Amino acid sequence: MPRHEPYRNHVELLQGTLDMLILRTLQWGPQHGHGISLAIRANSGELLKVETGSLYPALHRLERQGWLASDWKVSEKNQRAKYYRLTAAGKKQLLAEESITGVMKGAS
Predict the structure, then answer these.
(1) Which range (16-20, 57-61, 102-106) has the least confidence?
(2) In the CATH hierarchy, which top-level class contains the domain 8-107?
(3) C-alpha span between 103 and 41 (Å, rounded)
(4) Edge-to-edge, what's the strand order for the sheet holding 31-32?
(5) Which of 60, 90, 94, 102 can bridge 67 by disulfide, Cβ–Cβ 3.0-4.6 Å?
(6) What is the rounded average pLDDT for all residues in the chain?
């Protein structure tokens, strides 16, 4: 069954990339899911669009890992929304990922 390995590794790579984008977005402060999606899109020069079906499972996964915490608040549009923020563990993970990325950039 080695045929499934490249696909699995590809999915893990994509999840890891999305996780990193979310952590980097939240380093500037708490944000609700839609705001995170808009920030990723804006920061990529409109190249990346994170679909709801990918974003919310990633947010829940990061929360289960202890890298994010969340609270229900009222948004700027006066609607109830779940706001996500980095935890201390999430900040540590972000620094670790950025140091790895920095090493990889230096090697290329």
Answers:
(1) 102-106
(2) mainly alpha
(3) 26
(4) 31-32, 80-86, 68-74
(5) 90
(6) 85
63-81 burial, b at 16+ Cβ within 10 Å, e below that, comes to: beeebbbbeeeeeeeeeeb
Per-residue pLDDT reduced to its tens digit, 41-50:
999 899 889 9
| CA 17 to each of CA 3, 58, 99: distance values in angstroms, whole numbers, following the listed order | 23, 10, 15
41 Cβ contact list (under 8 Å, min separation 6):
48, 49, 50
In the chain, where the domains are located: 8-107
Backbone angles phi, psi at 47, to 5 degrees: -85, -35
- Cβ neighbours for 56, distance < 8 A, ≥ 6 positions apart: 33
Neighbour count for residue 84 (Cβ, 10 Å): 25
